[in-house]
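Please review this one:
***
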Amino acid sequence: MQKTVLLVEDFEDARAMMRLMIEKHGHNVIEAAGAYEAIAKAEEFLPDLILMDIGLPLLDGFSATTLIKELEHLDQIPIVAVTAFRNVQEQADKAGCSGVLYKPVDMVELETMLNKHLKGH
């Protein structure tokens, strides 16, 4: 069954690469280039999973995650932090993230994350 993934990434090239990787696994992808757009699209599309870039302009991904998790109808959506920074697990946990995916994104790690959060949903 096809699932919907909200992909939040401000760099278009990185977003395009990840979109192709996710679509290869048969999932629908909705894209957002920033945190506020991500929150609006999460409310509109109710995705099965959100991949949230942490280094976003205006509002960082941890803050966006916290805001999404505060919305009752969105609080059960798993959100995975996507970042090049290595020491963020504590911040990710505090924001309500269900995991961390490190950049550059590895296809096997992405597949593992997709399987973990989308199988059985």
Notes: The longest strand covers residues 4-8.
